[in-house]
Amino acid sequence: MRIIYENKNLVVIDKPAGLLVHPTDKNEKDTLMHQISEKWPEIKKHNWQNPSRAGIVHRLDKDTSGLIIIAKNPKKLEQLQEKFKNHKIKKVYYALVAGKVEPKCGKIITQILRDKKGKSVKQKISNFNLSWEKGKEAQTNYKVLNYYKYKNYIISLLELEIKTGRTHQIRAHLKHKNWPIIGDQIYTNKLSKKISKDLKLSRQFLHSKKLEFEIEKDINKVFSSPLTQDLINILDNFIPYTEI
Asked: What is each CA distance from 234 to 157, 199, 228, in whole angstroms?
């Protein structure tokens, strides 16, 4: 992990892909939570409501890289979670998706709920025609940063701002629009599978790029994380696409 910012109450970390934020029921021993405990052992001494997730304000999927906030004490955790709940923390991601995204900017608003098929945490979009499938509202705003040409395909680099923080929200929303993230092994389609295989990319091209929030009263900060080298290498395979 790389420390972006630290004060007495919180830390902003740049998480690498491949690192779990906290242990699951498999009781993994090498997670961001373990690294935090080693770096700041005083955090464990507080009376956390959930000690196994001490200081975890929000989560990133294991194979999503980028910025994440950690609270150093329960009071700050509660404050930050309240900010998330009230949409006072701006969260911006970059994603590379299969297909030509049109229009070039827009909103995806659906309800999301757990897909009960299998034992995974896969999410699905609610079917409004089925009363028992009512989920939680989720909103993702997007805009196209670039189109690229790869062989006979058009792919799109997106900037995404999530207004809600549902599990797998971005991945499920983009798959719902038939714009699955390149490299995603769960929310995918035939085209994204083919491109991912060609590029030998086995993790989703999804990066937590920017966080903006009030770190202390009347002190607002913007934090940014550059794309990781593996994602930069992927973009190097493509030719920018412009319509004539």
From this structure: 12, 7, 10
Catalytic residue check, 61: yes
Can you tell me the distance from the alpha carbon of 100 to that of 113, in angstroms, rounded to the nearest whole number? 27
C-alpha–C-alpha distance, residues 119 and 206, integer Å: 23
Q: Looking at the DSSP assignment, which residues form a beta bridge with residue 219?
A: 216
Q: What domains, with CATH codes, occur in the chain?
A: 1-86 (3.30.2350.10), 90-244 (3.30.2350.10)
DSSP class of residue 112 equals E
44-76 pLDDT, tens digit each: 889 998 887 889 999 999 999 999 999 999 999
**One of 25, 30, 61, 63 is an active-site residue; which one?**
61
pLDDT on residue 222: 98
Q: In degrees, to the nearest 5, what angle opens at C-alpha 111 toward C-alphas 108 and 23?
A: 100
Q: What six digits make up the tokens of 79?
A: 């404050």
